[in-house]
Amino acid sequence: MGTVTKLPFDAADLADFHASQPHRPERGDIVRRRYRTVWISDVHLGTRGCNADMLIDFLDHVDSETMYLVGDIFDGWQLKKKFYWPASHNDIVWRIMKRAKRGTRIVYIPGNHDEMFRQFTGLDFGGVKIKRQAIHTTADGRRLLVLHGDEFDAITLSHRWLAHAGDAAYHLMMTLNRWVNVYRRVMRLPYWSLSKYAKHKVKNAVEFISKFEEIVAHEAKARGVDGVIAGHIHTADYRRIDGIDYYNDGDWVEGCTALVEHDDGRMEILHWADEIRAREAAEAAATTRAAA
Ligand SMILES: [Mn+2]
Q1: Ligand 1 midpoint to CA 254 (Å)
Q2: d(CA 259, ligand 1 centre) in Å
Q3: How far does the centroid of ligand 1 lie from the alpha carbon of residue 279, in Å?
Q4: What is the mean pLDDT of residues 208-228?
Q5: 191 vs 76, which has greater pLDDT?
Q6: Would you say 249 and 236 are in contact if contact means Cβ atoms under 8 Å apart?
Q7: What is the largest CA-CA distance in the chain?
Q8: Cβ-based neighbour number of residue 280 at 10 Å
Q9: pLDDT tens digits for 15-36?
Q10: How, if at all, do strands 128-130 and 124-125 pair?
């Protein structure tokens, strides 16, 4: 994977990105919820699978002192095959650069799909620090190792071809997922993840996920930290494994989840489709009350 992937912009221009204008302006009427820390990963910008609208909504409603981008933010593999870059994807980059400018500490840990950023490890693009891994200290004093998680593919997948077969099957699933949700939107049904549903039905996938979680936790234990935060497998989770706190922040392709830390160190997984649903239900109820 040593080939260079062309990005929709020059990486050096990232520092000036906030000076440009977003296609969709930020909502000025929203008081943002504030957390100590936010972790997101597996956004896969540059693919149709990315739920950009949902992530823009999240970024417009949530703020934090620190934000970790835990890899696969861009999908260089797909961009290389077929160039796809809608305005909404630019708007996400713009929002991230803007919050860096406003003073949010942002740490970007590239994954395997955006490994072209790994060559910039140690550099700072307009307040976004690129790191290979990080140690995060929570408000309640726990030391958590933050990494993407593809480091363990050699152990969790016995052969490289299996990873790529998985990649093809995965993109087929994403296409189906998209059509299922176009239909559901037309029918005014809430967002539903086909692949998330399938994953929990398929025994192999369940085994793969738990094996990944155990291996990552094992590595954290060997490193002498209290816990670990990963992405990569698109499965948001919290588990206590062998004395280690294992967290996964999920993804913005299927689950649309983020991991957050409250001011007291308490951690929570936010399911953004559920948050939107609850907000819309509350708004509809308020409208009904106003009309009555
Ligand atoms: Mn990955």
Answers
A1: 14
A2: 17
A3: 31
A4: 92
A5: 76
A6: yes
A7: 64
A8: 11
A9: 677 677 889 998 878 889 999 9
A10: antiparallel
Interval between CA 287 and ligand 1 midpoint (Å): 42
Give residues with Cβ within 8 angstroms of 17, minimum separation 6.
Answer: 9, 93, 94, 97, 126
Binned at pLDDT 50, 70 and 90, residue 200 comes out as low
Could you tell me which residues come within 8 angstroms of residue 155 by beta carbon, excluding any fewer than 6 positions away?
Answer: 215
pLDDT tens profile 125-178: 999 999 999 999 999 999 999 999 998 876 665 444 445 555 666 667 777 777
Distance 100 CA to ligand 1 centre (A): 24
Q: Which residue has the higher pLDDT, 66 or 31?
A: 66
Ligand 1 center to 75 CA (angstroms): 9
* Higher-scoring residue by pLDDT: 30, 99: 99
- What's the CA-to-centroid distance between 6 and ligand 1, angstroms? 18
Cα(95)–Cα(30) distance, integer angstroms: 15
Q: Rounded to the nearest whole angstrom, what is the distance from the C-alpha of residue 177 to the centroid of ligand 1? A: 19
In angstroms, the CA 219 to CA 132 distance is 15
196-211 burial string, b = 16+ CB within 10 Å, else e? Answer: beebeeeeebeebbee
Which residues make Cβ contacts (< 8 Å) with residue 260, sequence separation at least 6?
Answer: 35, 36, 37, 38, 39, 62, 64, 267, 268, 269, 270
Question: What distance in angstroms lies between residue 280's CA and the mean position of ligand 1's atoms?
Answer: 32
SS3 of 153, please? helix
Q: Is the pTM of this model over 0.90?
A: no
Q: Which helix H or strand E contains 37, and what residues bound it?
A: strand 33-40
Domains and CATH numbers, the chain: 12-22+32-291 (3.60.21.10)
Cα(202)–Cα(207) distance, integer angstroms: 9
Task: Find the 222 Cα to ligand 1 centroid distance in Å.
Answer: 22
